[in-house]
Amino acid sequence: MSVVVLDNGAYTAKVGLATHDEPQVVPNCIMKAKSERRRAFVGNQIKECRDTSALFYILAFQRGYLLNWDTQKTVWDYIFSKEGIGCSLEGRTILITEPQMNFQSVQEAMLEMLFEEYRVAGMYKTTAADLAAFNYVTDSEGCPSVEALNCIVVDVGYSFTHVVPFVLGRRIQEGVRRIDVGGKALTNQLKELISYRHLNVMDESHVVNQIKEDVCFVAEDFKDAMRVHQSEERRKQVAIEYVLPDFTTVKRGYIRVPGKPREDEDQQQLVPLCNERFTVPELLFNPSDIGIKQVGIPEAIADSLKACPWQAHRDLLLNILIVGGSSQFKGFLPRLKRDLRALVPHDLEVALICPEDPVRYAWFGGRELATSANFDDLVYTRDDYEEFGLQGLLQQQQQMR
Fold it and tell me: Which Gene3D superfamilies match (predicted)?
């Protein structure tokens, strides 16, 4: 039977069989809406909700780690039902992702649930960064040379941003860096700014997340952007009005076209946005703006590089792979390259690689791994589980690394 590949992210789960062309992307949470109090929406069932205002999220992940197992099991049950991929896990092998530096108690709970509750025949767990690196090496349209075995994966996710270096195809654990800023922190910051300056949207995570995706961008030079922003003329170039959804005539918000007659929008709520558009994504480069005492992504990459063998530095800087949903802001790549260029030796070139689909890229790496010749050697079978137990399997995995 085909292997199930599950990139189990904190915001969305990407799942499918290794024989599938592409995965399903499913919200990894349970949602409740004011308009339909008697029903809970699981995963993609949210598309059936008529009014997603004040949507309440019940997340499986807390601060980036899988802690709410009841919620996770509900989502997984949905994923493997006919509404999802329509495939039972019983008797199958699953390849599943976990966060970097995952707690042992969480790893044990995952193993126990998969073997005891879902009756899998075998499992292999790894990280999204490992799968992204594997996909990068094996992707003929990426960089199939030996040099690609040396790469740095920058995963700009929902809860965290991780910088993970690989040398000769192996993760350098001493070089892994984590920044406690991701898509969730950006959405929360935008909620606070809009609520303080315009109207209270603290309960509108779903809507504000859409606003963030629609209007935010990364300034090439933040200080210059703030200075220029003081000019009335230049401020007009950034200022927009965002039409909020009313879930009757407008299901999803949108940017109001400048100069368009307002007759049709007189009854709509408009949110004026200006410097919020670039100050929110700036947190990826300056977490200290919200009191997080950590460096930004460019500094984290430079610091990660120092933990790697100097002989690999040239290849590592030429193969910086950018993945994760929060890497898709306009201007993100030029700004990252500009800031990183100033932090590394001038005689070394810097190249950023961003795949067309940074959200699902790790899943495609999982598909490649699950269909590779040596995948069976990596899998823990049910016999292994029954012979060695939870802690025995985890010790074996640590020794393999």
Answer: 3.30.420.40, Actin, Chain A, domain 2, Actin, Chain A, domain 4
In the block, tokens 């807390």 appear at: 62
In a domain, 211, yes or no: yes
Give residues with Cβ within 8 angstroms of 40, minimum separation 6: 30, 31, 32, 58
CATH number of the domain to which 153 belongs: 3.30.420.40
Classify residue 42: in a domain, yes or no. yes
Nearest to 159 by CA among 134, 188, 193, 135: 188
Residue 267 has pLDDT above 70, yes or no: no
Number of domains in the chain: 3
Q: How far apart are CA 401 and CA 395, in angstroms?
A: 10
Q: Which residue has the tokens 């933990």?
A: 307
Do 177 and 101 form a contact (C-beta atoms < 8 A)?
no
Q: What is the DSSP letter of 55?
A: P
Q: Give 246-257 pLDDT, tens digit per residue.
A: 888 888 899 988
DSSP tag of 242: E
Q: Specify the pairing of strand 24-27 against strand 12-17.
A: antiparallel
Q: What is the CA radius of gyration of the chain?
A: 22
Full domain range(s) for residue 275: 183-282
Query: Which residue, 167, 160, 129, 158, is CA-closest to 321?
Result: 129
pLDDT of residue 145: 58
Note the pLDDT tens digit of each residue in 199-252.
Answer: 999 999 999 999 999 999 999 999 888 887 777 777 788 889 999 998 888 888
State percent of the chain over pLDDT 70: 94
Residue 392, CA distances (Å) to 104, 121, 154, 286, 401 in order: 12, 17, 31, 41, 15
Q: How far apart are CA 186 and CA 180, in angstroms?
A: 11
Please tell me what DSSP assigns to residue 350.
-
Return d(Cα 3, Cα 17) in angstroms, integer. 6
